[in-house]
Predict the structure.
Amino acid sequence: MPAFVNEIFVLIHLTGMAILVGAFILNMRAKENFPFKLMVIGAAIQLATGTILVGLAYMGDDGGPDNLKITIKSLLATGALIAAIIGNKRQNKGEKNLQPFFHTAGGFAVINLVIAVLWNAEIWS
């Protein structure tokens, strides 16, 4: 598989992260009208492209990704997507007090980002 294909999926994956985390950070102080639709899109992009990237990593010569890291990141990404979907559905029904869903989706996304950056960082060696 050409490296270019992998890099395209990394670009799309990072775009999903930017949508999800950006929507969260820009609206952290909001009390209503949360950008759940954007968060669902970002989380779905992240989960789909992350799965593709893991598959591509297993096809490579590097022996595949760290299974523990991928498991943790997959659970967090799934949790963010589920929280955003539930928040979006409830917001569309006119329900109030949706901050827990918003902060769960955004918090999981930020934790996922931190894990992605720091898991293999030099600070641990």
Notes: The radius of gyration is 16 Å. The chain is about 75% helix and 0% strand. The CA atoms of residues 40 and 84 lie 5 Å apart. The chain has one domain: 3-124.
